[in-house]
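User: Here's a protein and a ligand (adenosine monophosphate). What would the complex look like?
Assistant: Let me lay out the input and then the predicted complex.
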Amino acid sequence: MENLRLVILGRQGSGKGTQCMRLSESYGTIHISTGDILRAAVETQTELGKKAKLIMDAGDLVPDEIINGIVAERIEMKDVLENGFILDGYPRTSAQAQALEGELLSKGLSLDLAINLEVPVDEVTQRMLDRSRADDTEEAITRRLEIYENETAPLLKWFEERNNLVVVDGLGTEDKVFSRLQNVVNGVINGK
Ligand code: AMP
């Protein structure tokens, strides 16, 4: 089994959650979704959950210090150190990207690849309206897409500058997209 360390970027509604789960099953890599961690905290009404709920409902970002702490703790757990990770929904800001780089460096680790699952704005808007999740109000969707363009899209350049970015077309059937992702990940494994 390969110890892969991947980041998946993509607009909300790009299908990255589903694809990350499939990649995790196929490669034995641990799927870390900051959105899932936060939703679980909201569900169980922890202190974090109480703080995060309003922010998430509005489609805003939970503060970097909080998210960075959650991820730093998770990536040093035994299962992740042994099996690697697929980060889904993190990093979302340049402060988060820097924190991740610092955390990995301090452990003598590095990222194998950031994959941008590219789906155009019109398509993701429709998909999010169709899935009708509790936090998917039209205002929140618009707000999240705006934040993505302003805060997260600049990270594409950041990873590109580190020769660490691949763009994968996220249009088409789930299987088709998955096989594109497998090709990319297999390439990483073969290059190790
Ligand atoms: P997601 O499931 O990735 O779309 O995340 C759902 C919501 O959780 C987002 O709209 C944010 O409010 C919050 N969230 C998830 N990941 C992050 C992150 N890396 N930084 C800040 N907020 C986040």
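Summary: The chain is about 60% helix and 15% strand.
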